[in-house]
Amino acid sequence: MKKYISRFHYLTQDLPDRSHIQQAQTACEAGANWIQYRCFSKGDDELLEEVNQIAAICDDWGATLIITDHLHLLDKADIQGVHIEDMQADFKVIRQKIGQDKTLGASANTIGDIIRIAESNSVDYIGCGPFALTLTKPNDYPLLGMDGYKAITDSMVQKGIAIPLLAVGGITIDDVEDLLKTGIYGVAASSAINLAPDPAKAFKEIYRKVL
């Protein structure tokens, strides 16, 4: 089942001064059509309370809501899908668990990751990164840069892999236009928006460049 995948994925994050709910509200008011709720600092009860409020906001604005990793919460709120950050996850098993209607996203860093994910025939899109240094999700994966994405998208074409590929990790507003020239499908961003002096303005600037 082919699903709609936005070219611009907005991710919430833990911030000391703005809740995930406030972040989602700001993004939706600025035009977001895809919200990824990414929170690892709360227990299930708090997560559900928050995600239900975010789901209501997304419903009001017609935005798709994806939750990061918390697979067990998927059927307990109005969530359209899940993004799995574990690159070694068994995506066939996850697809069986969530059914065909829910959107399933995966994380990748190399063309090898992408090939393995594609072979599962289970995933709707891939978030590939990091593009540059990111403090949102600290990791030891090699930074891809523009050349890395160009090499990956070229390999995907050669191998006939047509899964939408989004660049993620350390992306700034100034990177977006050049990134899109590498052949990627779209971008995902969090800190470039959430840590900006005016998050709504930052969102709109990226939105205009992507869509």
TrEMBL record:
<dbReference type="InterPro" id="IPR022998">
    <property type="entry name" value="ThiamineP_synth_TenI"/>
</dbReference>
<dbReference type="GO" id="GO:0005737">
    <property type="term" value="C:cytoplasm"/>
</dbReference>
<dbReference type="GO" id="GO:0004789">
    <property type="term" value="F:thiamine-phosphate diphosphorylase activity"/>
</dbReference>
<comment type="similarity">
    <text>Belongs to the thiamine-phosphate synthase family.</text>
</comment>
<feature type="binding site">
    <location>
        <position position="69"/>
    </location>
    <ligand>
        <name>Mg(2+)</name>
    </ligand>
</feature>
<dbReference type="InterPro" id="IPR036206">
    <property type="entry name" value="ThiamineP_synth_sf"/>
</dbReference>
<keyword id="KW-0460">Magnesium</keyword>
<keyword id="KW-0784">Thiamine biosynthesis</keyword>
<dbReference type="GO" id="GO:0009228">
    <property type="term" value="P:thiamine biosynthetic process"/>
</dbReference>
<feature type="binding site">
    <location>
        <begin position="134"/>
        <end position="136"/>
    </location>
    <ligand>
        <name>2-[(2R,5Z)-2-carboxy-4-methylthiazol-5(2H)-ylidene]ethyl phosphate</name>
    </ligand>
</feature>
<comment type="function">
    <text>Condenses 4-methyl-5-(beta-hydroxyethyl)thiazole monophosphate (THZ-P) and 2-methyl-4-amino-5-hydroxymethyl pyrimidine pyrophosphate (HMP-PP) to form thiamine monophosphate (TMP).</text>
</comment>
<dbReference type="GO" id="GO:0009229">
    <property type="term" value="P:thiamine diphosphate biosynthetic process"/>
</dbReference>
<keyword id="KW-0808">Transferase</keyword>
<feature type="domain" description="Thiamine phosphate synthase/TenI">
    <location>
        <begin position="17"/>
        <end position="193"/>
    </location>
</feature>
<dbReference type="GO" id="GO:0000287">
    <property type="term" value="F:magnesium ion binding"/>
</dbReference>
<dbReference type="InterPro" id="IPR013785">
    <property type="entry name" value="Aldolase_TIM"/>
</dbReference>
<feature type="binding site">
    <location>
        <position position="170"/>
    </location>
    <ligand>
        <name>2-[(2R,5Z)-2-carboxy-4-methylthiazol-5(2H)-ylidene]ethyl phosphate</name>
    </ligand>
</feature>
<protein>
    <recommendedName>
        <fullName>Thiamine-phosphate synthase</fullName>
        <ecNumber>2.5.1.3</ecNumber>
    </recommendedName>
</protein>
<dbReference type="InterPro" id="IPR034291">
    <property type="entry name" value="TMP_synthase"/>
</dbReference>
<dbReference type="Pfam" id="PF02581">
    <property type="entry name" value="TMP-TENI"/>
</dbReference>
<keyword id="KW-0479">Metal-binding</keyword>
<feature type="binding site">
    <location>
        <position position="107"/>
    </location>
    <ligand>
        <name>4-amino-2-methyl-5-(diphosphooxymethyl)pyrimidine</name>
    </ligand>
</feature>
<comment type="pathway">
    <text>Cofactor biosynthesis; thiamine diphosphate biosynthesis; thiamine phosphate from 4-amino-2-methyl-5-diphosphomethylpyrimidine and 4-methyl-5-(2-phosphoethyl)-thiazole: step 1/1.</text>
</comment>
<feature type="binding site">
    <location>
        <position position="137"/>
    </location>
    <ligand>
        <name>4-amino-2-methyl-5-(diphosphooxymethyl)pyrimidine</name>
    </ligand>
</feature>
